[in-house]
Amino acid sequence: MSNYHIKTLEEYFQVYRKSIREPENFWEEIAEEHFLWRKKWDNVLSWDFSKPEVKWFEGAKLNITENCIDRHLATRGDKTAIIFEPNNPDEASQHITYRQLYEQVCRMANVLKSQGVKKGDRVCIYLPMIPELAISVLACARIGAIHSVVFAGFSSTALATRINDCDCQMVITADGSYRGAKTIDLKGIVDEALLSCPDVKNVLVAKRINSDINMKDERDVWLQPLLDNASTNCPAEIMASEDTLFILYTSGSTGKPKGMVHSTAGYMVYTAYTFKNIFQYRENDVYWCTADIGWITGHSYIVYGPLSNGATTIMFEGVPQYPDYGRFWQIVEKHKVNQFYTAPTAIRALAKQGSEWVEKYDLSSLKVLGTVGEPINEEAWHWYNETVGKKRSPIVDTWWQTETGGIMISPIPFVTPTKPTYATLPFIGIQPALMDETGEELKGNQKEGRLCIKYPWPSMARTIWGNHQRYKDTYFSTFENKYFTGDGALRDEVGYYRITGRVDDVIIVSGHNLGTAPIEDAINEHPAVAESAIVGFPHDIKGSALYGYVTLKDTGETRNQDNLKKEINQLISDRIGAIAKLDKIQFTEGLPKTRSGKIMRRILRKIAEKDTSNLGDISTLLNPEVVQNIIDNSL
Ligand code: WT7
């Protein structure tokens, strides 16, 4: 019998040791006993990080939706699979049972087929957090089409880039979306994006806000009538274990986003197993992750992980502050939520409003609290623990990435003693390493370095869509024979890990992973801008916020600086999305550079952090004279 459900610290250590000593035996047992296979594998794992190439459960055949839906029908047909909680609390929530989910996914799958979508085709899903989003994702998986979900807060340019990069021929969207008191013209954004996506043949449009939109003949179709006429039966396409399940974009150190490619079997096994243990999910629990399915958190821990365990998972359409700051807690009370998983930025924003909002509601159903996306500071951790969890519910601070597919370092609640700001111990099967700058592994405790993973795990991304070389360069070239995460971390005296933050040009703002390069590219498009550099600085709610240093072209004309700042932020909003707007913009005469012309972000970062006591030796710069000026005018 495999240890699918870990219940004690002793058991954790025992299972962890086994997963490291005999990884193939370990994962084979988990896969064998807890999933539905059309054919078993010939080989558990083959890998070579120098290529890099990783294959799990080769030779196996399966469909992930049979694991997430069909196999539950006999025992959980009438159990709620998804609770949809709308943006507006006055609108009724919806409970979708496993049987209803089966029928709706089959209908959608049949619609996709009737529109010409075939196995291996890429489908772009640009939807708000409404049931159609989860259903579309699962319908793609049902027929072997590759879904590429684009978060519905991205701009038309960002959407177009993602559609074109993986050559989607279909987009699934909605007339619009609700966001607090506002509505967003999603279809308008799609129309604009598609001006530069000639290959998109079909757009399926879900009705959500009943707005008056343009439907382009031959291209745009309303979804509902098609669904109404579709059959509730659709045989699952039988997939190979390494067939691509989905592509999800994440930002990188160049302007082009990286389409992370996730496979089927390994992703399924790892997300299911982590979900069960890290949230200690029990049969009748109600689980809620507040993320959007447009991010990896939603893919793995709203859709696939919970459903493959036959869980009840909440999809929330709204925002934490609408109609007031009690919305999260009202939902916890209403649905008697047992596991609650959110981002530190949301916790900080809510904590700032005081405890009254929390105390109005009965949160006694809560058993486990989780955080994800960025480091959680001590103060927010304590507020979460005391005010929300009443010191009864352990907090799982889960570290992972779009690339890792599933949670990598995290406490197991009621098993691993927690420690504020620490993600604590590696999950089963995960072998972290801390590296120094020379490429040596730092062995032993009380070490700080760059965080790598030494051995493959089932849900790791297999490549970057259309660019395997970039996958190799980004993740497998900094340290030989290791996956490099881009994060720094420390290991304390008992071996607990604390993630200290990015060591590359990625900044985590409100839990969103933003590359500096695409933002700089957007700014540099402004006709008045010569060049720019973005750094992060500490922000009490967002964790980090963006500080832009911008040098203007010397055209002799003077422009109103406030207007320029607005135009720059508008450009960023248009090219990427409002999440990437700058909090501070400083116009500078020049940017500090090395002799080879590389911008010295380290210096700019220190100035933005208001820590100019130790800027290091600046005399070797190409233009040391600009530094004092930047300090004098800093914001
Ligand atoms: C980056 C990945 C994983 C889903 C959401 C973000 C940071 C993530 C933690 C944590 C400290 C964290 C890292 C990581 N991060 N979780 N618990 N503690 N930092 O996915 O957009 O791919 O971002 O988020 O810097 O590399 P992502």
Structure description:
This protein is α/β, with parallel strands linked by helices and 635 residues long. It has two domains: 9-475, Rossmann fold, CATH 3.40.50.12780; 506-632, GMP Synthetase, Chain A, domain 3 (2-Layer Sandwich). It is built from 20 helices and 30 strands. An eight-stranded mixed β-sheet has the order 12-11-8-6-7-14-15-23, with helices on both faces. Strands 5-4-17-16-18-19-20 form a seven-stranded mixed β-sheet, with helices on both faces. A hairpin with a 2-residue loop joins strand 26 (506-509) and strand 27 (512-515). It is globular and about 75 Å long. The structure holds 5'-O-[(S)-butoxy(hydroxy)phosphoryl]adenosine. 5'-O-[(S)-butoxy(hydroxy)phosphoryl]adenosine binds next to helix 11, strand 20, strand 24 and strand 25.
Task: Indicate the CATH class of the largest domain.
Answer: Alpha Beta
Main pleated sheet: 8 strands, mixed
> How does CATH name the architecture of the largest domain?
3-Layer(aba) Sandwich
> Main sheet: which strands, in order across?
12-11-8-6-7-14-15-23
User: What is the number of beta strands?
Assistant: 30
Proportion of residues in helical segments: 25-40%
CATH superfamily of the largest domain: ANL, N-terminal domain
The small-molecule ligands in this entry are:
5'-O-[(S)-butoxy(hydroxy)phosphoryl]adenosine
Secondary-structure class? alpha/beta
**What is the distance, rounded to the nearest whole angstrom, between the alpha carbons of the first and last residues?**
61 Å
The number of helical runs is: 20
Beta-strand percentage range: 15-25%
- How many domains is the backbone divided into? 2
Average pLDDT, all residues: 95
Described by the principal axes of the CA atoms, the overall outline is globular
Query: Would you tell me which CATH topology of the largest domain applies?
Result: Rossmann fold
Which regions have little confidence, pLDDT < 50, spanning 5+ residues? none
Radius of gyration: 24 Å
